[in-house]
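Hello, quick one for you while I still have it in my head. I'm working through a protein record and want to make sense of it properly. Would you mind checking whether the tokens look sensible for this chain? I owe you a coffee for this, so here goes:
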Amino acid sequence: MGWLDGQVAIITGGGSGLGRALVDTFVEEGARVVVLQQSPGKIARLREETDPAWVQVVAGDARTYESNAATVAVALEKFGQLDCFIANAGVWDFGRTVTNSTPAELDAGFDEVFALNVKAALMGMAAAVEPLRASRGSFIMSLSNAALYPGGGGPLYVASKHAGVGLVKQL
């Protein structure tokens, strides 16, 4: 018997790092997990290393409503419910500063970092809100110390994590 027996969770970006640790821990604690992952290599590794009775993997882009909705649909179809949505997918800006980036790099970096670190969580919540209400479940957004302090990355990453705090407060 684990802490999460009978629970069903979605974890975005569950193919490596913190996301993979969450997948493994949730399964060890008795939960079924659906992972939304974009990287083909990470998808293959998840499918090879996990039991489909416990872990389902959806190939898709966490930044889109469609991929999040498809992931929610898999959770409901395969496991019958959704109890927790963890918006974990994210990207770091490698500490790039305004002074060591070109305007074009800042422009492209903003779109990339904010789309994955903020928009993806918003799209996940939009897709999961009704099943989470039905189960009285939870929505978790993975943030970092950069959500509280300016030292966790460059201005794009830190600003995106602060935006994540605002998103969580508003939701």
Remarks:
- The mean pLDDT is 97.
